[in-house]
Specification:
The protein is an alpha+beta fold and about 100 residues long. It has three helices and six strands; from the N terminus they run βαβββααββ. The protein has a two-stranded antiparallel sheet with strand order 1-2. It has a two-stranded antiparallel sheet with strand order 3-6. Strands 4-5 form a two-stranded antiparallel ribbon. It starts with 7 loop residues before the first strand and ends in an 8-residue tail after the last strand.
């Protein structure tokens, strides 16, 4: 329910936008396949609650579209303004281990 999309074939229009060849299948990755849990050090100033951050940094139309895609789960979202080092990963899960990752 977080609004991230499944794997799917790109349309011709989408292929044109990214400069992909139109004569072969090109796929959008499954953004729900890998789940990474992280532990951010307490008090890190780069971590922001999505709801508060988005009010200040996004146009209302974008914010509404993202909230609509995620349902009410946006209340649990955070944004990190920086690079999260792998040392902060506490858990990495392949949610579709029966498939080969490309």
């Amino acid at each position: 329910g977080h609004g991230l999309g499944q794997e799917r074939e790109l349309t011709d229009r989408e292929k044109a936008i990214i400069g992909a060849p139109r004569d072969r299948p090109v796929f959008m990755m499954d953004k729900r396949r890998i789940r990474i849990e992280v532990v951010i050090p307490r008090g890190d100033r780069n971590l922001h609650r999505w709801d508060r951050w988005s009010k200040k940094h996004l146009a209302p139309s974008w914010r509404d579209a993202l909230h609509g895609a995620g349902g009410h789960s946006y209340r649990t979202w955070f944004i990190y303004n920086g690079i999260i080092p792998p040392a902060w990963f506490s858990k990495v899960e392949d949610l579709k281990p029966d498939r080969i990752a490309a």
